[in-house]
Every structure is written in structure tokens, then in C-alpha cells.
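S1.2 Input.
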Amino acid sequence: MIDLKPYAQTLNHRRAAVFGLGVSGLSVVRALRAAGISVVAWDDREDQRNIAAGIGADIQNVADGMDEDFDFLVLSPGVPLTHPEPHDVVKAANTVDVEIIGDIELFHRAAPSLKTIGITGTNGKSTTTALMAHVLNDGGVKAQAAGNIGTPVLDLDVGQIDVLVLELSSYQLDLCSTYRPDISMLLNITPDHLDRHGDLAGYTKAKARILDGSGVKIIGVDTVPTKELFDKSDKAISVSVNGSADVDVQNETLYYKDNEVADVSNFDTLKGEHNYQNLACVYAAARKLGLNDEVILAALKTYPGLLHRQYKCASIGTVDYINDSKATNAEAAAKALNSYDNIYWILGGLPKEGGLDGLDPFMPKVEKAYLIGQASEDFKSWLDAQGVENELCEVLDVATEQAHQDAQNSGEASTVLLAPACASWDQFASFEKRGDAFMQVVASFEKGEAA
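S1.3 Output.
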């Protein structure tokens, strides 16, 4: 756990409010109480309030009891800060001029000297964060991935860390008033979370916070907003998979300042243009931290992949089995479909707006589709119109077994791909549970328990 005691000595009142008691919120309560700071906390969920009370928080609705005797309010990133309108607790804090921060900002105030890499973007944050930590650890630099991935930052033992790699959402960046990474990485910006930021300009502004510091800036320039930010940045490193840049990937070859570095087509867990961008950004950061090309490339090759994100969970004969359960919309599914050939595609679930729009260019790569969940009938109509053979399977285990049989019977190198293009909530509690169920069925094939 992070020691907040030195920071606590700088406070006027040694009293804090915490609103939102998820995993990170509870870690905030623990760290504040361990430092002797009085905590008033609230969450709409009674079970979470009870946990917080058990670790020393005074439970009351912070929005109703906010006053100037609080040093700050630690807000859950999921609580609206500005749009569609500020939450009542935000309004209350603003009325009495209480500072609103997040756990990342609080962590920074407690450990300002720890070297950090901050990674944000609309897509690819989790993979890039995990990959960055993997490369550093393989290269002898003790690194930990945290933030929007893994362990809450205030639960970390930073005495064992050389570099902290933080995945940062736009919501988290909105709550960082002074924290700026030593190395900032902005991957891409496409429209997302516009309800929380007002419009694309507001969303871009939140993401661009990561570039405000004086540290190294690595910017993917393949989206219009990030290219504009790069053009305004001083001495930033550009990364591209669609053209020339300081670090780029062209024809599956990585280049650094126009010098060929390596063929990346054989990096099995980093297939597709989106992953080429991820590895190019990691390469740029690793060089800045002093790792040489040989070490970086060796580490890239051994990256195991992020569970539920194009994760190769098995190879049986000539068939690869890919768990991309995190592909919960068409845009995410497109990245997976673009990365493989001879695909036996498992899709469906709770549909999102737009359905399968935009996926038609990838349909020649699909041998057959297997439909599950609420979206099945609508998706079947779409696939029929595309001339793609498909089968209504209703549930995941049936779809996986049928896809397995058909792929194995084809006698060709092929891929059984779970890329649902849907949310999971009609049949599963989360996309993780859906991916776990897929991998469990695939594991039974490896053991010979299913045909």
C-alpha cells in the first residue's frame, strides 16, 4: 500500500471525502485511513458502503454533507464530472471550493518521484500497457502495469518498482490536476464517450491532458485529432502504421527514423495494424528508457497477449483458437477479422447501436459464422445479405463446438474466432466471463473431451 502519511502532513484538515466505492475507491479509503486521514464515504450500493465502514470510513451521503473542511474529494472516474451535467456531489464540492481529484492524482502526490509511463487513446490502451510492462520487465527494468488495468495504484508496493506503467482513461485524466507522466503515450482518438465529454472536442481535450507535462511525448498520428495535437507539440515522437513517421510500420516492417528495424509479421500475439501501432509506441518508449533493439524485439516476440483481447488460447492441428471476447462492438471486431484468414466466426450477444455496420469488407475472410444471444436473428439477416454461411447456435458452448468441428474438418490452416461484436450481458455477467467460458470449451477439445 502507498504510504500517504508524508502527504497527510501537508493537509489543512486531514479530512477527505470519497464518492464511489468500487475496487479503486475502497483502496483510496484504506490508504487514507492508514495515514490517519478522516474519511467520509458514499456509494449507492449498500454492500460497498458496509465494506468501507469496516475499514474505518464514516458513511454518509457526501453530496449532502460537503463543506469547506474537506481537503479534497476523491471521485470515482465513472461519476459525471461535467456532462451530461455534473453529478450532485460535484456540484456540492464546487459550491464550497473543495478540490476534486482521482486516485491517480492522489498517488502522484504521495509518490511524485516514481518514474511513470502514461498511456491513453480510444483503442489499444490495455494491450499497450500490458505490452510495455512486459518489455520493460524482460529488459531488466522492474515495471508494474496499473491504473485502468490491474492493481489499484494505491495498493501497490512501489519500493519494488522502477517504472509504473499506467493505463489512463479520459475520465481518469479529467481528475489529474497536477500528475503528468515522464513518458506520455497518446495512441489514437476516435469518437467515444461523447455523452461524458459533450462532443469530440471535449473528449480530445480530456485525452490531450496527458501531453501537458515536460516529459517525452509519443503520439500516434493516424487519426485526425492526434495528428493535430502532434503538430502543436514540441519535440514529440510520431508513430504511424499508415505512413512515414519517427517510428512506423510499413508492409509489416518496423522502421525507426527510416531505418529498418525488424520484420514484425511473425509476432504471433501482435497481429494486425492496430497491434503494429501498439508495438511501435512501446518500441519508441523502450528506446527512450535505454533498452537496445535486440532486447526490445526479443521481448515483443515473447509477449503472451492480453486475456480476452485476441488471445490465442490454443492451437489444435492446423486451427488456432482466438479469444477476443473484449470485441464488444463492430469496430473492435473489425480489428480481429482483419488479422486472420479462413475464419470460423462466433458472434452475437446483446447488440449495440450500428450492429455489424462496416464489417462487410471482411466477410470474404469468413468461412462460416455461428450466432448466439439476442442479436442472432438480426445478425443472421445481415450475414445472409452478405452471402456468408451461418448457423443459429443460441449459446456459446454449442457455437464453439460446431465451429471447432467445421474448422478441423476443413483440413486447412484456419481460425476459430470469438469476436462477438456485442455486449455480453444477455448471457454472461461480463465479457471476461464470456471469454473464460469459450476458453473452457476449447480446453476440453485439447483434452479430447469433445468431438
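S1.4 Remarks. The radius of gyration is 23 Å.
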